[in-house]
Write a structure and sequence with these properties.
It contains eight helices and no strands. The protein is mainly α. The radius of gyration is 16 Å and the shape is globular. It comes from Selaginella moellendorffii (Spikemoss).
Length: about 180
Amino acid sequence: FYTYSDFIAAANGFPAFGSTGSLDVQRRELAAYFANVKQETGTLQFIREINQNNVYCDTRGGVSCPAGDMAYYGRGPLQLTWNYNYDAAGRAFNMNLLQNPDQVAQNGLLAWRASVWFWMQNSNCHTAITQNQGFGATIRAINGAVECGRGSETQPAQNRINYYRDFCSQLGVSPGENLGC
């Protein structure tokens, strides 16, 4: 499902992704992105969130919760979650993901596109790395409510940090500061 060619095609739709700042910053961004992908997907083995019992629908942002058996649990490399994220990604791609969120789990290119879109447009992950806020800011943006704020990092947050350090090492760049929540 997760192919290199689909990832490259998706990334090419976002020219600033992995190409902003110095070579070290670019490498840190790719390391941060893939560290989070590795945690979210269990090393690219999961397309859908394991626990699919949560509906993740919130109308406070002005986005409806369509009638029926719609659930906005995580799908894809960064596990796109919540009705408002599916709606915004769908609008960005001229698709109705609000009515059919499972499209993200059925199309590898769309899954990568949605994850890079989330990274670049909707979560502050790109700016966290390119503006030297540190890897920890990406954890907070992606899953901070669950993994941060308990006095110390949870195991999933620590996994992300370890993966990030490993990817940085492989890419020959220091991980920088502010790695944790």
